[in-house]
Model the fold of this input.
Amino acid sequence: MHVRAFDYLRVIAETGSLRGAAQKIGVTATALTRQIEHLEYFFRMKLFERDQRGIRLTAAGEVVMETAERVSRELDVTRQRVDDLKGLRSGIVNIRVSSSTLTSVLVPALTALNDEYPGLRFMVEVATAPLVGEALVAGRADLGLTIFAPDLSELTLCARMPVVHSAIMAPAHPLAGNDTISLRDLQDHPLSMPDSAYFVRRAFDRAVKSSAMSLDPVFVTGSFELQIELAMRGRAILFLPAFSCRTYIERGQLCAVALGPDLQVPTSLDLLRASHKPLSAAARVVSSRIADVMASMDAAGDWAG
Done:
């Protein structure tokens, strides 16, 4: 049995047509049939059956398909590890991150890595904390960087940095001169927050649950860019780590004010990987560099605003 037969099985299942699969793969229908016959002989079961709509997997075929997909992923990992033996002249690292970590943590790390390893390629996708975890467990990402990390039972912590959220607003905002900001201070001022699908919103809702007051954001959005723009225009107060807005704060476009005890939601910035998936040499280097940036920020107290 040839490993390539697994790929053929997958394409036939996707197209539902022997002829269509043969054209897509670039082999004759006869050659394709022979490979499937080899698979069926190996498993001693029929893997496909015909109906009015074409060819579809049998129950046994579905089981074999699961293995085929897993083998394909493992081969990709193995191929990447073999490529690693050539050194770090090439390689792709897939990273899932929360948007608030991009400019302060990821950009400095990737900039340094690109200077040192110009052959590396970085696939970066912004995602919520739950989706970061899902991508890691499913093998669609090598590393995840997020605040309010998802369940860690299937994930391994590579680095952690404590995070304190601040009230982020325009320097001309009426509350910008406060030493701290309480829940009561916020009652007459518009807020911008994500919806409850985001862990950060759930955390703040829990923090104020025992209070007679509540958080009632005027603007509900998960877009980091939109929240920043609303804050700069003086239209809303945000709850974000000060480091995520460092560039805007340094330019004088935003300022950070400490939150009072009734709004404290201690958390951390976590660099994660899937426990079941070993990191490639390229991913290990990227992980180490991101961890270095996090450590330097922690040492400088940048997380505290």
About this structure: The two ends are 60 Å apart (CA to CA). The CA atoms of residues 94 and 123 lie 5 Å apart. The chain has a mean pLDDT of 87.
